[in-house]
Design a protein that fits this description.
The complex is composed of two ATP-binding proteins (HrtA), two transmembrane proteins (HrtB) and a solute-binding protein. Part of the ABC transporter complex hrt involved in hemin import. Responsible for the translocation of the substrate across the membrane. Belongs to the ABC-4 integral membrane protein family. HrtB subfamily. The chain is 55% helix and 14% strand. The chain contains 13 helices and 13 strands. Helix 2 packs across helix 11. It starts with a helix and ends with a helix.
């Protein structure tokens, strides 16, 4: 009987215990891999989330909330600022590109964002839409790829929006003809001003792999048109700024901070603060992960201790037949490694499968796109660490038999 066949036979002899050990390793590896993929996606998504706009201007309040709402479409706007602030920004020589935005309405929970269509060219370059064209008139919209997929929207469809943000309402209400129904406000009732304003889908954006995939975009003046604001001081929600230089960004920030109730924020700093908070939370998860790893190692150890107790006479017979102590040692260590390797392979598959299942939920909530089948150096680290733990857990029981002479093994 070959070395490998002997190990396999020993595993099959204790099918239930071997299976439990494999499942323990599988669950641990899958959890560690899912954590790794999620963390990498958060970091990548945070960096891609704001594009070239290094400065954002908005109402005074939480810098984090301003950035999350403006770029990641999370939470409510901090407030509004006077429209004349945009004029000051455009007059500054340190500004390469700047776009005012208006927000505050939604369609089935997805935010409606008013912005000049040139925003897409500045941020994403000259990309071809999935269908249709960009908006040009008030009431026309382009829809993010994720929104279009989830709500079944096509160019030419029409809908009405609702005031505010409706968390968790990401679904389409269908009428008798199979078209999406109207959006609802937080109370579930239609508002007259929103109900009478009809949006027409002009185009569907390509997949951008940013939070913009889960938003609806229209002209800057939509909010004023919806609420019938035809005169007076028009307000905007925020201004996205692509500075011409770092020095220009600093000078602009200093100037804008002198305006009452207005703040200028370095986008990268606010995003870094968010990532740091995520890392702190990940630290707690890593402690849980280490506990899972320890439990998996204990599972392997107990499995092989049970194997040693069952197999003492078999090992003694092998020794009497001329097999060396090293051979006996390697059969037990090999069994532990094989069990661990089986759990490792299944865990990698389960981790990627779980990330695929959860990717839409994470993207819908935070605009973070997990790449479920992405391979990285973490895979090598996870595999090496798993096999090492399996080998070390196997070594103790194996050494116990290694130190005993053949007659005592046979008599035990």
């Amino acid at each position: 009987m070959s070395f490998f066949h002997l190990i396999l036979r020993n595993m099959l002899h204790r099918k239930f215990l071997s299976l439990l050990t494999i499942l323990s390793v599988t669950a641990t590896v899958a959890f560690v891999l899912l954590l790794s993929l999620s963390k990498a996606s958060v970091e990548q998504g945070a960096q891609k989330g704001y594009g070239p706009f290094d400065v954002v201007v908005g109402a005074q309040g939480s810098q984090t909330q301003l950035v999350l709402n403006t770029f990641y479409h999370i939470g409510a706007p901090v407030g509004n600022i006077p429209g004349r602030t945009m004029d000051m920004v455009l007059e500054d020589s340190g500004v390469e590109k700047a776009y005012a935005i208006t927000t505050g309405d939604n369609y089935n929970g997805y935010p409606i964002v008013g912005v000049n269509p040139d925003y897409f060219l500045t941020r994403y370059g000259d990309q071809k839409l999935q269908e249709g064209s960009l908006y040009s008139e008030t009431g026309e919209v382009v829809v993010g790829a994720y929104v279009a997929r989830m709500l079944g929207l096509r160019a030419g469809d029409t809908f009405t929006g609702a005031h505010g943000l409706v968390e968790g309402a990401h679904h389409a209400d269908m009428d008798d003809e199979g078209h999406e129904g109207e959006g609802h406000g937080e109370s579930g009732e239609h508002h007259d001003d929103h109900e009478s304003f009809i949006y027409t889908v002009k185009g569907i954006l390509p997949v951008l792999n940013t939070p913009d995939d889960r938003a609806v975009f229209t002209t800057l003046d939509y909010a004023w048109a919806v609420h019938g604001q035809v005169s007076g001081e028009r307000e905007i929600t925020a201004i996205l700024i692509k500075p011409a230089s770092l020095l220009g960004a600093q000078e602009l920030k200093t100037k804008l901070e002198g305006i009452p109730q207005v703040q200028a924020v370095y986008t990268s700093k606010a995003v870094a603060d968010v990532v740091n908070l995520v890392d702190q939370g990940a630290g707690i998860i890593e402690v849980v992960t280490m506990l899972c790893v320890i439990l998996a190692a204990i599972s392997i150890l107990l499995s092989l201790i049970a194997a040693v107790n069952e197999r003492t006479k078999d090992v003694g017979l092998l020794r009497l037949l001329g097999k060396s102590k090293g051979y006996v040692l390697m059969t037990l260590v090999g069994e532990g490694i094989l069990v661990t390797a089986a759990g490792l392979v299944l865990g990698l598959l389960a981790g990627h499968a779980a990330s695929y299942v959860l990717k839409d939920a994470l993207f819908s909530y935070a605009g973070i796109q997990i790449t479920p089948f992405q391979w990285s150096a973490d895979h090598i680290i996870i595999a090496a660490a798993t096999l090492t733990i399996g080998a070390l857990a196997s070594l103790g029981p194996a050494l116990r038999l290694y130190r005993m002479d053949s007659l005592s093994l046979f008599k035990a």
